[in-house]
Amino acid sequence: MRRTFVVLLSLLLPVALWAAEQTVVLDVNGNCRMCKKRIEKASNAVEGVIESDWDRKEHKLTVKFDDTKTTKDKIVSSVLAAGYDADGKKATDESYEALPDCCKYRD
Ligand SMILES: [Cu+2]
To answer: Any idea of the CA torsion for 55, 40, 104, 82, to the nearest 10 degrees?
Structure first.
């Protein structure tokens, strides 16, 4: 009985570990190096985020996160709150206006 349990656990554990880590790629608007810092900071501030990388040319934010601790929506909300349009959603005018002038990416 005990052996069966151990065998079962050793079979399930790698699956459980693999399932916890997810990677998403989000469209995030921005301009400059400061934007990169701000966007990644906003994403990294979410508990459960392992790493974030914003590609300035492609305007893509790649986030690796633990899906037992956070969700894509929470990451998107945090980036929106920092003033950046993310995943097809618009940041509020208020958070956008708070950006430094060099970071204003809207026309
Ligand atoms: Cu900027």
So the answer is: 150
